[in-house]
Structure formats: C-alpha cells, structure tokens
Amino acid sequence: MTLIAGVDSSTQSCKVLIRDLESGVVVREGRAAHPEGTSVDPTAWWNALLAAIAAAGGLDDVAAVSIGGQQHGMVVLDADGRIIRDALLWNDTRSADAARDLIAEFGADALADRTGSVPVASFTATKLRWLRDAEPANAARVAAVALPHDWLTWRLLGYGPATESPLGADLSALTTDRSDASGTSYWSPASGEYDREVLIAALGHDAVLPRVLGPSERAGETVVHHGVPAGIVVGPGAGDNAGAALGLGAVPGDVVVSIGTSGTVFAVTEQPVRDVTGTVAGFADASGAFLPLVATLNAARVLDSIARVLGVGHEELGRLALAAQPGAGGVVLLPYFEGERTPNLPNATASLTGLTLASTTREDLARAAIEGLLCGLADGFDAIRAHGVEARRILLVGGAAQNEAVSSIAAQVFGAPVVVPQPGEYVAAGAAVQAAWALTGERPEWPLTLVSEHAADVRPVIREQYAARAAALPQ
To answer: What is the mean pLDDT of residues 228-257?
Structure first.
C-alpha cells in the first residue's frame, strides 16, 4: 500500500490525513491546536505540524505530502530566514485603511485587471502596507514574504534559519501555488506573474517571493530533520478554499457553499473572473483553473443565535423550520449580526420583520433563521453567476449542511440541485490529492460520498421578501 499525506493548517488547528493512494481511504490522522488570535508567531504552526504528524503515526511510510493552509496570512522573513514579527492572519482587520490607500493609488478597475481582485483587509498586500506605515523598521528588514502554507512547506523541506534547519536560509527555495498566490493582491491569475509594482507600493521595496508551482509540480523532497524522514515528495500546497474544492472534486459547473463561522461561495471556472466592485474575488484554484469566491461574515452563528432564543438545539430548530411554510409566514431575518461583507454593510445589524400575531410562532422564527442565512449566501451566489458562471449543482458543506432543514431549504433558495457530501476534512483531503498528483503525475479520482441530494425546488417568495427587506435598509 502506498500512502500519501494531506495537511490542513487552518486558523484554529493543524490536521494531518494519511490516505491510501489507490482508494483515497483515510488510514490514520492526527491534529494539534493553534493559538488563538489574529496575529500569531508562525513557529506555533510549525510545532503544531510536527505534533499533528506525530499524532498521525509519523511519515516514515508516507511517499508524498502536501500542505493546505489559511489564505492571505503575512509571514515576513529577514535575509537569514528569521521571522521578523508575528504573522497577521486573514481575519486581522488593522489593514483596512491600507486597503483603501492601495485602491486610491491604483484604482479599483486597475487592480482588478492587474491582480484579479480589489483588495480588502484580509489580503496580504494590505498587511504589508500596514507594516510599512506602522512598523517601518520591521518593513525595512523584510527580505522575503511568504504565506502560511509557503513557509510551512519550506520548513518541512528542511529550510529555515541556519541554527534550526539542515538546508539553511535559502529564500530562493520558497514555493507557493496559484491559489494562494492569487490571494496576495500582487499576483495575477490571468497572466500567472507577480506584479512587482503593487508589491513595492505595499511594502516600500522589492522582496523575494515564492516560486509559483503548477498543480502537479513538486516543491522538492524532504531531508532528515525534526523527525521527518528523507525522500518524501512534497507537493505545491494550496489555499484553504482551493484545497477544499480539490478535496471535493469540484469541476466547472460546481458551486461550493460552505457554512462555517463565516460563509463562502465559490466555483471552479475555466476563465478568470474580474469584478471591479470587489464583491467577487477572482482567485485561481489548485487544479489550473480559477476560483471566483464570495465571503459573508454571518453564517452558522445565525442559527446558533436563534436556537438560543428558542431554547432548542440545531436538530430541533430544523424540525421546527420544516413544520413552517416557505416564506415563514412573512417573517424575514436579515442576518447581519456582525455587519456584513456581502453586501458591504460593515455597520449593519440584524433585523427581524414581518411579525404578526399569526406568524410569531416558534416554527416561523426557526424557518426565518434558516431562510435568512441561506438568502445571505444566495446573494453571493448571484454575484458569482452574474459573471456568467454556470451552476449545475450546489455542493453544500460545513457543519450546518448536515441539518436536513438547511439542505432541503437550500434547494428552494438557490434554485439549483443541492448535494451534501459526507462530513470530512476537505482541505486536508485536497492537499492529499496534490500529494498524489505530485507523486504520480496524475490527478487521482477518489469517490465522493454524498449523504443527501435535493432537486431544485424554487420557492420565489423566500428570495423576494428577503430582497424587499434588504432594499429597505439604509445604505
């Protein structure tokens, strides 16, 4: 049996899956926690990776490995390969003003043309601009800029500060992939090239950037260090959403809707998407195609909040919702509990409207919560489809997707067939696909197990009354 490993170094933790190359079956796995916060010492990720590998039984019998990781995080290194400061993560918003400054200097249209996206606070370029303005001494020391998965790949291969690694601080050995590079705001998915002018405007000077690998290209092979054996093929790695798309086997015509703490809607497309409004990020994927993506701030916690008010768990919330009619008797929840990114309403709050003596029931409130959550994601779905993206089916993932009410109502809201895959670590699964691809030169075709399927069942009243309430909000 040939074994390969996929890693998901997420915001919260590091997960390692060891899979059988031929079948894709998970043989063993391990995990380790990451520290909390929006600014983290990358050394904690490296220690967690080593711990998760050990918990998964080690890599002695593994032929190839690849690392998926949280997008956008800023890892800055000096000329000796040392970390200059804690990495700012995707969810660190101190760079919001820096994003506006870059847009003012270049123009939203120009940045969308040059880099595929209009930058927001999560993107790496904006964090570099913040570093330049807030910590100029640290910015001046930056010799190389990497993303979390880039840096971990480099360390796994045996590179790093000379006192900590056998291969030393060879910054030219840093690598990345198209998907993660496309979230920096200084790499173009359309041209496949770095935009050094944007990088210099952000950081204040040029720096070493990771070499961008193709989907099946090898970053290298490991040497013996820190319990890592020699000779393991290391794949290119990927950003988290692109890793999930690869793990799900998503192809053009598939739209992935992920319901987590935040929500994401993304699709695999054969052509890049350019959106000057900034609603859709024109990312690349991990297969050589493209991954237009929309993010929402409010997702699973919408259900948490209403379940708490009703004094029920999620299963009972779903049962109540299915006992109500589509449209929840006119009750509409606009779920902007923490403001919203799509649409761009950072100061908005949630609102519950349409209550009458007849509609103020537990059933209608539960249904309104699920409809409101899904309508918020459907706004993102519409933004992607507005760019000509075909949607033959919706892949609904995340913990809330396992609720029968959520998945069945999704088919009424999105107006497309909805399938719910078996719960799994799909970012790590996608990284394992990369590892297999780098090892053999062929993308594996492992089966995807579905737990439910729902035919399109459009109920216009849901979206219509939601849109009417949203249009009445002050902009």
So the answer is: 96
